[in-house]
Amino acid sequence: MALHSIAFPCPTIVFTGAPGSGKTTAMLELGRELSGVITLAEAATAVFSHHGVDPAEEFADVETLRAFQFAVFLKQLGAERLLAQRARAFGSRGAILDRGLNDGDAYLPDGYDDLHRLTDVSRNDAFARYTAVVYFAPAPREVYDAVMRSKSARGKRHESYEQAVERGGLLREAWVDHPGFVEVDGPDWPEKLAAARAIVLRHLTTPPVS
Fold first, then answer.
1. What is the mean pLDDT of the chain?
2. What H or E segment, with its residue span, contains residue 26?
3. Rounded to two decimals, what is the model's pTM?
4. C-alpha–C-alpha distance, residues 85 and 88, integer Å
5. Which of 64, 143, 185, 203 could crosslink 139 through cysteines, CB 3.0-4.6 Å?
6. What b/e readout covers 50-86, taking b as 16+ CB neighbours within 10 angstroms?
7. Handedness of CA 116, 110, 16, 39 (dihedral sign)
8. DSSP at 210
């Protein structure tokens, strides 16, 4: 797949991390707060809703899981192509993405090897698309439980806290070698958000490419 054909005209910052870690909330808050910044929602959420996939029942079948992650990868590619065009049209100062291409490593049985076989895209080629990666460490158990109670009330399934922490570790492993990798941690949400904001602002000083 020709990743080089999609050139971003501005800095791109991936927010990744365990479920309930705060990455999506941070992306939405900073997208509203920072002028000239556009955002991209998580691709997997769109694939779930569009195809009616039930992970609790269907992902026990490994081939179904692989097919789902390939669909997520293609959705991400298409969404990033559109994001790049929007950034170019609007003269955006930067883009924040809720997950990136390498997140698939953490959701496949054989990790990167699986993703590479499915997509023929190397980890480094995917890394090269993004200016920085902000990894949100798992939230404390009480925070996670509160977030998941809210999701359950809306009819959404979720992982146990132990599963979420394990997933977070796999996601960290998938991204830690990116040259712009930064981890934000801590039980205090305002401090965690402030750390993410500072990272984004640091990269927004890079002028957009015309």
1. 88
2. helix 23-33
3. 0.90
4. 5
5. 143
6. eeebeeeeeeeeeeebbebbbbbbebbbebbeebbee
7. positive
8. -
For residue 12, which of 89, 80, 78 has the smallest C-alpha distance? 80
Ordered DSSP codes for 44-99: HHHHHHHHT--HHHHTTSHHHHHHHHHHHHHHHHHHHHHHHHHHHHHT-SEEEEES
List the Cα angle 96/177/35 in 5-degree steps.
Answer: 15
Looking at the domain 10-204, which fold is it? Rossmann fold (3.40.50)
- The residues spanned by each domain of the chain are 10-204
Interatomic CA distance for residues 58 and 150, integer angstroms: 24
| Pairwise CA distance, residues 177 & 135, whole Å | 12
Query: pLDDT per residue over 94-119, tens digit each?
Result: 999 999 999 999 999 999 999 999 99
The helix (run of H) or strand (run of E) holding residue 43 is helix 43-51
Instruction: Give the contacts of 88 (CB within 8 A, at least 6 positions apart).
Output: 9
